[in-house]
Amino acid sequence: MSISILGGHASGHALFVPKGDSTRPTTVMLRRRFFDAHQDCSGLIFVDICAGTGAMGLEALSRGASEVLCVEKNKHVIRVLKSNAEAISKKVPEAKVKIDMASADQWLERFLRVYKTWDEEKRQNTYLYIDPPYELKDLYKKCLTLIKESEFEGVLWIESDRQKGILEKDINSVGYQFAKVYKQGTSFIARLSSLE
Hints:
The chain is α/β, with parallel strands linked by helices and 196 residues long. Helices cover 36% and strands 26% of the residues. The strands form two sheets. It has a seven-stranded mixed β-sheet with strand order 5-4-3-6-7-9-8, sandwiched between helices. It has a two-stranded antiparallel sheet with strand order 1-2. The radius of gyration is 15 Å and the shape is globular.
């Protein structure tokens, strides 16, 4: 099975997907809805947490993101992610991709300490995209709590599912609300904003 980059320098390039149930790539239609609204990612630092195949982060890279950070804890999946990143990097001028094997919450805790040292423009141009397995609601909440306590200044996105995943009321319980939502079937990508 493969999925393809939809636009930018690497448009049409196939990304490999690991065999089995180890990943759940963002559907093509949902990814298209998101990137139709964010066609130019120039200057963005796109952080893809629970990256899987890397489809979201590598799509942003293809569309001009200045840097992409992918986080994945599954050692079998990360091999495919690295292969995908290497292939896309060859097609993208000055590509900067970093891949870390780590659990989402532990990596995020370390990242947010480094993030605080960045200049204001870099902090504001950071997209955090969080997409764990839908059923891991506690992981969503833990990550969102870490971000809330860090005074994150960039743009926060999550992917989930109205039947299997975290819901808006759960998001509200950690101090966020939906600001913008892209839907495909029961799955959605939501931009979050603070309730305060």
